[in-house]
Each structure stands twice: as structure tokens, then as C-alpha cells.
Design goal:
The chain is mainly α. It has 14 helices and 5 strands. Strand 4, helix 9 and strand 5 form a beta-alpha-beta unit.
């Protein structure tokens, strides 16, 4: 029986952090046995908002590949590939732009939100505004039916399906399948400062390659409840980053619920909960850091994995492009 196909990826803008791990990385680890999984190192998409820093984008490709391998993505089971080296994705992107309107792109909630947070205003790069069409190309070129992503990406999958329906409609047959977003139960992790988004550039992330000292410092600086001044004061659990992270990573749910009750009631200090979180994060990241260092020491091997994965992906995406060209009845020489 053929396995259902997964395509997901990460913008190549820096190493991955524990927010990625709590979100879609954990899902991908689980799914790589039951699904045919493709992981896209999205360097072309990264340029849509990082055109001023191509060096960062180039370096991030291998950094993220190292993160994948370090957490246990197995290249025998999952295909890791590089977006910019798959020409069919660029070609399908150009084609799909004709099946979407500017108004629809501007209305996409993800894009609207990102334009605001990046402060683009009216000076949004055209490539950025149009990246939903490129992401539709990514997803459909692999004929993926499942897309594990954070909740913020759901509108992109929705827009992909609109393009799919238009193309299938014009072709008069179902060339491309619709896809479904797979959203992790844990919402997006906030930064250690309590800000909505954890990001390397924001300086509020704990990366998967963080050294023990950096992990300690991050936990020490972590935002809790500013009104919880003395141990005996009642404290707030909601919006308290330490508890949000414990929710994501603490496997001992019963003890965690007890601690929350104690904290709310008063009598539990920030030091105690921070120590618990630090132990959990150190234990989570230590083996990842070790495996990452091992792979980083053999860069040629990592590049080989990317070369092979990209070759496999190239065949797949070229085949889909041909089907689309034929299905639409476009000129062929
Ligand atoms: N937009 C995704 C991110 O911000 C990366 C990405 C690119 C992606 N192409 C994709 C995700 C296709 C899912 C499917 O990380």
C-alpha cells in the first residue's frame, strides 16, 4: 500500500529552536514511519524577506539540515531537499500566480500579519506578497495531502487548495490533490521574554544547539508573573512563560498540575519552577546537541544527504509539473 505524502519545510533564516521542536518537528519524527515525508529547506522562500542577507540564507540551509538530523529525522525515511535546487517549484510558482489575484494575496491572514510584524507597510517585496503561490507549488509538486505546520500557516494551505481547485477545474480533471494542515496541539511557544513569537533575531529563543550555559541564562531571564514578588504571594500561571514551556515539555503531567495549583495559591517560588524547567530543557537538548556536533563534523556526509534527497525530490516535482502542463494543455515542444 502506498503511504500518504507529507510535505513541510522551514524557511532558511537561522537555526531551529525549541518552539519548532514542540511544534512540527515532534510531529515529523512520529510521522516519518507511517508517511512518505519530504522536508523542504526553503531557501528561496527565505529570500522573500531576507534578500538583503543572502549569506544568512545560504548558511541556514545546512544549519537546519543539521537540526533535522540531530533531532532524529532519518534520511532513509524522510527526504530532505533544497527548494532552490528544484526548478519545477519555481516554474509551478510562476504558473500558479495566474490562478490567484493580488487582492486574495493581500487578504491572506498570514501575509497580512507578517507584513505588519516585519514593518513592510506598502514596501512589501513582491516575492514576499506572492509567496503563498510558491508555497502552493511546494505542497502540490509533491502531491502532499498532509502538511504539518504551526497554526499560523493554516491560511497558506487553504490558499493552496483554492489554487488546486482552479487548476483542476480548468484542466477538467483532478490532477492535483487538496491538502490538509496538521496543526500541533501545543500552540506556538512564546519567546523567553513573553513576546508572542520566539525568534533567533529577537534574541528570545532557545535554539536546539544551545550550550548548557545559554540554556541556564535563558531560563533565569524567563518572564514569569511580574506581580509574583514573594514566594507566598499567589501567582499567575497563564501567560507565565515557565509554565507555558512546562506544558510543552514536562512529561509528568500530574506533578505539573500540582505545581500550578500551588503556584496559583501561593507558596511556590519562581526559582523552584525554573529549576524544574531547566532540568527538563537540559535533558532534552543535550542529546540533540551531541548528535548535531557529530553531523556537523562530517559536512561532506550532510551535503551528500541533501544531494540525494534533492535528486529524489527533483524527479517527483518534475513529474508533477509535466502532469500539470499536460493537464492544462499548455504548449510543449
Ligand atoms: N512557510 C514555512 C515557514 O515559514 C516554510 C515552508 C515553505 C513550508 N514551503 C512550505 C511549510 C511548504 C509547509 C509547506 O516555516
Amino acid at each position: 500500500m502506498t503511504k500518504p505524502i507529507i510535505l513541510t519545510g522551514d524557511r532558511a533564516t537561522g537555526p531551529l529552536h525549541i518552539g519548532h521542536y514542540a511544534g512540527s518537528l515532534r510531529n515529523r519524527l512520529k510521522l516519518q514511519d507511517s508517511h512518505e515525508q519530504f522536508l523542504l529547506l526553503a531557501d528561496s522562500q527565505a529570500l522573500t524577506d531576507n534578500a538583503h542577507d543572502p549569506g544568512k540564507v545560504r548558511r541556514s540551509v545546512v544549519e537546519i539540515a543539521l537540526d533535522y538530523l540531530a533531532v532524529g529525522i532519518d534520511p532513509q525515511k524522510s527526504t530532505i531537499c533544497v527548494q532552490s535546487h528544484l526548478p519545477a517549484l519555481a516554474e509551478l510558482s510562476m504558473l500558479y500566480l495566474n490562478y490567484v489575484t493580488m487582492a486574495r494575496l493581500e487578504r491572506n491572514p498570514t501575509i497580512k500579519d507578517e507584513i505588519r510584524t516585519r514593518g513592510f507597510g506598502h514596501d512589501v517585496p513582491a516575492g514576499f506578497l506572492c509567496y503563498p503561490a510558491a508555497q502552493a507549488a511546494d505542497i502540490t509538486a509533491f502531491k502532499a495531502t498532509l502538511v504539518p505546520v504551526g497554526a499560523d500557516q493554516a491560511p497558506l494551505v487553504e490558499q493552496t487548495n483554492e489554487i488546486v481547485r482552479r487548476i483542476n477545474d480548468v484542466a477538467g480533471k483532478a490532477i492535483l490533490p487538496e491538502a490538509q494542515a496538521l496543526i500541533p496541539p501545543v500552540g506556538r511557544l512564546p519567546g523567553i521574554d513573553g513576546k508572542a513569537k520566539m525568534s533567533k533575531s529577537g534574541g528570545n529563543a532557545i535554539t536546539l544547539s544551545a550550550e548548557p550555559d545559554a540554556i541556564s541564562a535563558a531560563v533565569r531571564a524567563m518572564y514569569t508573573d511580574p506581580n509574583h514578588l514573594r514566594v507566598e504571594d499567589p501567582g499567575k500561571v497563564e501567560g507565565n512563560v515557565v509554565f507555558t514551556y512546562l506544558d510543552a515539555f514536562d512529561k509528568d503531567r500530574a506533578t505539573l498540575e500540582d505545581l500550578k495549583a500551588q503556584y496559583r495559591h501561593g507558596g511556590l517560588g519562581d526559582m523552584k519552577i525554573k529549576r524544574r524547567l531547566e532540568d527538563i530543557l537540559q535533558a532534552l537538548i543535550a542529546p540533540i546537541r551531541a548528535r548535531r556536533a557529530e553531523f556537523a563534523g562530517d559536512r561532506a556526509h550532510v551535503l551528500d544527504i541533501l544531494r540525494q534527497g534533492t535528486a529524489t525530490a527533483r524527479e517527483r516535482t518534475e513529474a508533477t509539473k509535466r502532469e500539470v502542463v499536460e493537464g492544462l494543455g499548455l504548449f510543449q515542444l
